[in-house]
Amino acid sequence: MNFIGSVGAVVVLAVLGQAAVVTENGLPIQWEKAPSELSQLPTVDGVIQVNPWDYLQRMALYKLLINSTDPYMSSMGPGDKENPLWSLPLQLGWKLKSGRLTDPSPATTSTCGLESSEPVCISPLSWYGCINYYLSVLPFLAAVQTGVVGKGEVQVQVQVPAEMAQDYCSSYTDCSTKHPDAMAKWHTFFQSLQQISESEDTDFNKKDQILGLMWAAEEESLKTTYVACSERQKLYSSPEVRFGLSWISSAAYVAAARFHANIERSEKFMAPLPSRVLQESDSPPNIADLSAEENHTLYVFGWMSSVNQLLGGSLVSLWRSAMCSAPAREKGQALLHDLVLDPKFPGTSLMSILSEMATSC
């Protein structure tokens, strides 16, 4: 089978149905229950105490981020669902729905991480919960530090399990010390928002600049998780580990294209993600109790990862090289759309298209 030729057809099949539930009433899971004001979070002696192991409090961090950055996102388009940060709370909701926020230990009896738990919690042993920590707590602390979230001097302390203090950071200073590159890029993103939005540049260029800074920060956070969360991966089956790593690796493509991850686009691309944690006996694309869409998605993610490895990383490198300008990145986003959603797109032309785009840079 021609790998490049098969990817278009396979990915298209993967998105024709919806395997995963990532929204309710058009918004992230339990979005309406999450606090929407800093004053609604617990406070002790004037210091806001964030418990990121409470699902609603972690979702509140995203709610505050989106509400606070919306005034700077007019270049993304009209309406209240164009903010590119929407993909982050949608991912958190999918992780809850699919059982990926639970304790993955084989003999666990904990209900933490189940949607039915009360209150809904996130297990500190969850690899996915760990990854999401660096995509929620770090940007939130940076947004508070730069004044994008909160007015005046706001003090925030993040609760960390005592037995895992070395794995997580609890304040802006602590996180900046442990993860300087990621925190610096989130700081730059939030610090630059107002300046970019108020410039006399075109909306096209403003959008491209904002997305570039956001994706740079997200990618740096994901790099951090490879080390910080790696021990938790040992608790999962090998098929789930392969899926998780390929899922993270796929961010390189959307990041390089500076993908505008509003609610509509994010939901469309997340809908066919697997709706449960994979077990050792699972062998995609032939998992009996998963839908055809889920099986195909698992195949595609595995394919992208395997081919990139076979080519010594050149598939990702070629893609990055081709995304060399704002117009090229717009074309890259359209190319991603066609690869995934257009059944008539000639997948065999992918490499030649990328090569031509990279040459014209």
List the helices and strands and how they pair.
Blueprint: H1 3-15, E1 43-44, E2 47-50, H2 55-69, H3 87-97, H4 127-134, H5 137-145, E3 156-158, H6 172-178, H7 180-197, H8 203-228, H9 230-233, H10 238-249, H11 251-256, H12 263-270, H13 292-310, H14 314-322, H15 326-341, H16 350-359
Parallel strand pairs: 2-3
Antiparallel strand pairs: 1-2
Helix pairs in contact: 1-13, 1-15, 2-5, 3-12, 5-7, 6-7, 7-8, 10-13, 14-16
From the structure above, extract its key features.
361 residues, mainly alpha, three-stranded mixed beta sheet, 16 helices, 3 strands, 2% strand
Could you write a compact summary of the structure shown?
The protein has about 350 residues and is mainly alpha-helical.
